[in-house]
Each structure stands twice: as C-alpha cells, then as structure tokens.
Design goal:
The chain is mainly α. 53% of the residues lie in helices and 0% in strands. The protein is built from 5 helices and no strands. Helix 1 crosses helix 4, helix 3 runs parallel beside helix 5 and helix 4 packs antiparallel against helix 5.
C-alpha cells in the first residue's frame, strides 16, 4: 500500500467523519509514520529516520513502507486509532479495535524474530523446509 492508499483506508475506517476531517487530515501522514516507526523498531530494531536509505519516513502519497506488504494495512489501523484516541468515549471505543489489530501484528512480528524470522508474506522462516519430518 502507498501512503495515499493508507490515508484513504483511514478515511474509510472512520466513515469519512466530516466533523473530524479538518482536525486530523493535516496530521494523518504523521499518524501513519508513527505506526511505521513502531513497526520498523519491532521488525528491524531500527527507527524511521530522515536521511535513512533503509527506512525513510513516508512523505509523498506514492511512498511505500520498506516493510513486508502484509503489514501495511495495520499502519492504517494505527492511524485510525490515533484519529479516535482523543475523541469522545464512543470514538475512543471505536478506535480500540484498530489499536488492538496493530498491536497484534507487532506481537506476531516479535514472536517470529522480526526481519530474521519472517519471509515477505509474514510466514515463519524457521523450519519452512522441514514440513514432513516424522515424529
């Protein structure tokens, strides 16, 4: 997913909440980058940094995160949570599911060892060639 697609996903997930668009739209790129930094830290034990060739921050709507594609939709989930977190209790409640999705994904990456333990599709690299070993 590109940054622009993630922003569109956040708009969809928040039902294009017209009363909040003006408040959060300028910060949406920052919200996605916040999730991206958290993801990169768990995935590769690094931070997103300006000037980095490996994990630069996302700025243009055509930018694609330098992490496995299966994780991209969770960045939109984190941004959705950040949109809802400072709202009224009903909005915070709606946002909790998106927060939990993102944290679940981080847990999956951490459990498998991050960049060294997962392939591009999010499958464990360990034992992947030994599927029919008798017990």
């Amino acid at each position: 997913m590109t940054l622009g697609e993630m922003k569109n996903e956040v708009m969809f997930q928040t039902n294009n909440d017209a009363e909040d668009v003006g408040d959060f739209m300028p910060a949406l790129t920052d919200y996605v980058n916040d999730g991206y930094d958290r993801l990169v830290f768990v995935y590769a034990h690094k931070h997103v940094a300006t000037g980095s060739t490996e994990f630069p921050p996302l700025s243009a709507d055509t930018d694609v995160p330098a992490v496995p594609g299966w994780t991209h939709r969770y960045l939109a989930d984190w941004a959705t949570w950040l949109v809802y977190r400072n709202g009224n209790p009903q909005k915070q409640s709606r946002g909790m599911a998106y927060r939990e999705h993102f944290l679940w994904m981080l847990g999956q990456i951490a459990d498998q060892g991050g960049i060294d333990g997962l392939d591009e599709d999010g499958n464990p690299k360990k034992y992947k060639n030994f599927i029919n070993i008798p017990k």
